[in-house]
Design a protein that fits this description.
The structure is a single chain. The chain is of the alpha+beta class. It is 48% helix and 19% strand. The strands form three sheets. A seven-stranded antiparallel beta sheet has the order 2-1-7-6-5-3-4. A five-stranded mixed beta sheet has the order 9-11-12-14-13. A two-stranded antiparallel ribbon has the order 8-10. A hairpin with a 2-residue loop joins β3 and β4. The protein starts with a helix and ends with a strand.
Length: 466
C-alpha cells in the first residue's frame, strides 16, 4: 500500500464492495418481502373464496376447494374436527388430516353445534373481515413444503362457525431469493476485480504527470540548477495548477538565490573598501606614526560599524524577524530623533505632527526615520522637512527636501539593495546603498509601505494601532 495507485484502487474497491453489499441486501429484502406479500395475498384469496362458499350455505361436502398442489386448504370446526380438506392434502404442520378421493372429505359436521352467537360475534352467513397469517408446512401427496397460511373465520347459514386455513407455497419465493443471492455472490467478486483494475489504470494515468514533476524536481535538486522547470501538462486540472505553482516557486527561489548571491558579493565589496583603507592607515601609522590619519581611521571605523549593523539588520529581516507589538507615538519619535541631529549639514524643520500610535518596534521605525533623513541630507540644497499626518486609518510620515528629486524611472530601483544613483556614487556621500532598502523592508514588516510620492518627498504609511 505504499503507492497512491494501490491505495486508490483499494479504497475504491472497498467503497464499491460496501455499496454493492448494502444495495444487494436491500434488493434481497425487498424481493423477499414482495414475494411473501404475494404468497400471503394468494393464500388470503383462496381462503376467502372457501369462506364465502361456507357463508352462502354450500355444504362442506360440495365445497369447491383448490388443488392441494396450488393451495392446500383445511376447514375445521370450532372443536377442531376437520370438516373439509383439499385434494391430496395429507398433513398440516405435521398433523394428519382425513383425505379421500374427490374434492374433499366430509366428517361429522357442526350441525349439532350450538349456533347461539355471543354479542359481537359473527352472525350466520357472515365472513370475518379479520385475516390472520402464519407460516407452516403441509404434506401434499407425500411432498412436504413450507407455506404461508391465511386463516379466516366464517359461519354457515345455521350459525355453525368454521375456520378456513388456506396456504400458498413459499418455495418460489425461496428459490427466487436464492437465485438472486447466488447471482450476486458470483457477480460481486468479478465486479470488484473490474473496479480495482479500472481504478488502478485511471489513477496511474492521472498521476503520470506527477511522476514527471517529481523526477524533474529530483533532477533539479541533484544539479542545483534552479533555472530548470518542471513539465506543465496541457490539462487545466489540479495537477496542471500544481506544475505551474511549482514553476512559480522555482522562479521565486531562483530569484531569491540570485539576490542572495548579489547581496553577498556586494556586501563583500562594500566591506573590502573600508577594511582596506583602515588597514592601510594603520600600517602607515605603524611605520610612520607622524603620518597616521586618526580622524580618517575613526571615520572608516564608524563607516564599517554602520555597514555591519545594516547587514546584520537585513539578515534578521530576511530571516523573518517580526516587529514587537509595542505602541509607538510617531509624533513623539519624530520630535526626539530630530532634536538629536544637531550635527546635520542642514537643520531639520519639523512640520505638522498629528497624534496617532502605531504598533511595532520603536528602534526599527527610528532607523527608518534616520535613513530617510540621511538620504534627504545627502541630496538637499537648503531645506529638509519632516511631518506626520493622519489619513483615515493610516499614519503618514513624510520627509522632503529641496534637492533635485528622484527621477520617475528610478523611484522603485532606489529601494533595491546596494543601489546608488549616478549622482550619489561616491561612497563618501552616497553610502553603501542599504538605507532605503532597509527602510522599505521595515515598513513592509510593520504592515505599511514606503515610496516616493513626488521627486523629493518620501512617504511612510503605517496602520494606526487599535
Amino acid at each position: 500500500m505504499g503507492s497512491v495507485r494501490a491505495r486508490a484502487a483499494a479504497g475504491a474497491t472497498v467503497v464499491v464492495a460496501l455499496a454493492l453489499i448494502a444495495a444487494g441486501t436491500a434488493v434481497l429484502l425487498v424481493l423477499r418481502g414482495n414475494l411473501q406479500n404475494q404468497a400471503r395475498l394468494q393464500a388470503e384469496v383462496a381462503a376467502h373464496e372457501v369462506a364465502v362458499q361456507i357463508a352462502t350455505g354450500t355444504p362442506y361436502g360440495k365445497l369447491e376447494l383448490p388443488d392441494g398442489d396450488d393451495h392446500p386448504v383445511v376447514v375445521t370446526a370450532e372443536d377442531g374436527r376437520v370438516l373439509a380438506v383439499g385434494e391430496d392434502v395429507r398433513a398440516v404442520d405435521g398433523k394428519r388430516v382425513a383425505a379421500s378421493q374427490g374434492k374433499g372429505t366430509v366428517v361429522p359436521s357442526a350441525e349439532d353445534e350450538d349456533g347461539d352467537d355471543d354479542e359481537g360475534a359473527l352472525k350466520p352467513g357472515e365472513v370475518d373481515e379479520d385475516v390472520t397469517y402464519r407460516d407452516g408446512t403441509a404434506d401434499v401427496d407425500g411432498t412436504v413444503a413450507d407455506y404461508r397460511f391465511a386463516v379466516i373465520q366464517a359461519k354457515d347459514g345455521r350459525g355453525a362457525e368454521a375456520t378456513v386455513r388456506a396456504g400458498a407455497e413459499l418455495a418460489p419465493e425461496q428459490d427466487a431469493v436464492a437465485s438472486v443471492r447466488d447471482a450476486m455472490l458470483i457477480g460481486l467478486p468479478l465486479l470488484l476485480v473490474v473496479v480495482a483494475g479500472v481504478t488502478w489504470l485511471v489513477t496511474r494515468r492521472a498521476l503520470r504527470p506527477v511522476e514527471g514533476i517529481r523526477g524533474e524536481m529530483a533532477a533539479i535538486t541533484a544539479s542545483t540548477d534552479l533555472s530548470r522547470r518542471v513539465p506543465v501538462p496541457s490539462s487545466k486540472d489540479e495537477i496542471g495548477r500544481l506544475a505551474r505553482t511549482t514553476n512559480e516557486t522555482l522562479a521565486a527561489l531562483e530569484s531569491a538565490v540570485e539576490r542572495q548571491r548579489r547581496f553577498v558579493a556586494d556586501a563583500s565589496h562594500e566591506l573590502r573598501s573600508p577594511i582596506a583603507s583602515l588597514r592601510t592607515q594603520l600600517e602607515v601609522g605603524v611605520a610612520h606614526p607622524e603620518l597616521l590619519d586618526v580622524p580618517g581611521a575613526v571615520e572608516d571605523t564608524v563607516r564599517l560599524q554602520r555597514l555591519a549593523a545594516d547587514l546584520l539588520l537585513l539578515a534578521r529581516l530576511d530571516a523573518g524577524e517580526r516587529p514587537s507589538g509595542a505602541r509607538v507615538d510617531l509624533a513623539a519619535m519624530v520630535r526626539e530623533e530630530s532634536s538629536q541631529r544637531v550635527a546635520d549639514r542642514i537643520p531639520v524643520r519639523v512640520g505638522e505632527l498629528a497624534g496617532g500610535e502605531v504598533a511595532g518596534s520603536r528602534s526599527q521605525l527610528a532607523r527608518v526615520l534616520g535613513n530617510l533623513l540621511d538620504n534627504a541630507q545627502r541630496h538637499a540644497v537648503a531645506s529638509v522637512r519632516v511631518a506626520v499626518v493622519r489619513e483615515g486609518e493610516w499614519a503618514v510620515l513624510r520627509v522632503e527636501d529641496d534637492g533635485p528629486g528622484v527621477p520617475e524611472s528610478e523611484r522603485e530601483r532606489i529601494f533595491e539593495r546596494f543601489v546608488r544613483l549616478d549622482d550619489a556614487r561616491a561612497r563618501d556621500d552616497g553610502g553603501a546603498g542599504l538605507g532605503l532598502a532597509i527602510a522599505r523592508d521595515v515598513a513592509v514588516r510593520h504592515g505599511g509601505s514606503l515610496g516616493v510620492r513626488t521627486g523629493s518627498v518620501f512617504e511612510l504609511r503605517l496602520p494606526v494601532a487599535g
